[in-house]
Amino acid sequence: MMTKIREITDGDLEYAIKLTDLMNWGYSKRDFKWMIDFEPRGCFIAVDGIERIGITTTIIFKNKNHSIGWIGNVIVSPKYRLQGIASKLVEHAIDFLHGEQVDFIGLYSYLDTSKLYKGLGFEEDEHFIKLSGTGIPINFESCRKASDEDLKDIVELDSKIFGFNRKKVLDKICKESKNECYVMISNKEIVGFLLSKRSINDVDIGPWVCEPKYFNQSLELLKAILNSANGMKINMGTKAKNLTLVNNLKKMGFKIDFGVIRMFYKGKKPSMFDNFLAIESLERG
Hints:
Layout: E1 3-7, H1 13-21, H2 29-38, E2 43-48, E3 51-62, E4 67-76, H3 85-99, E5 104-110, H4 114-119, E6 122-134, E7 143-145, H5 151-162, H6 167-175, E8 181-186, E9 189-198, E10 202-210, H7 215-228, E11 233-239, H8 243-251, E12 255-265
Parallel strand pairs: 4-5, 10-11
Antiparallel strand pairs: 1-2, 2-3, 3-4, 5-12, 6-11, 6-12, 7-8, 8-9, 9-10
């Protein structure tokens, strides 16, 4: 088998969706269009002749001094698994990110695939969990829907907490009309926000960010989403060790679906504040 890896094009989107559907990831054409828009040269597909056999994506975030690359959506067609294709895709992504001079490379691994990434030089950092619940009518206070004018302050707070500028992602989420985004205000300043991405049946939470001292009030942001998404499935990911938040989520009807491990290449981890309540997504960090 002669495996080659090339950049994903719009013509590959249907294949990518069918492939991720095998894992019940629920991705849409929008999701992959976004990844190509975010990193046009950083989304890859493996081919054997004319047959497409696997994909992966990357995204790069920067701050004044450093940059981080994130690898996601590593998946191979079933009949080509256990033949080293996933490793080749990840190695290709690493080479691309090194070529872009990134300082750190991270990813989220399912528990049963972490051995693959360890063999490629990644080291475990922290455990995260993916939870799901259902939207319900619920009262909320101390927050409001985000406006276009709030985006600058949202990006600034996110950069402070996450450590890198994610404007290109936050801008996409906030400006898509079907999504709902809420902010929490104190002394006329945004001290927390929650962004959500809405599909036909599901709502994906994240990022959910707040200044640490406003943690208790920040639960109102989640209530706002639960109320607006009555009857819809709500998905989110957070740190497994954040027991206070996890217990609050369980009281709201959330259940743990599965765990993942955050890993960094060669163990080089950026000094992020790490005070976010929910990650943006598994594929983008």
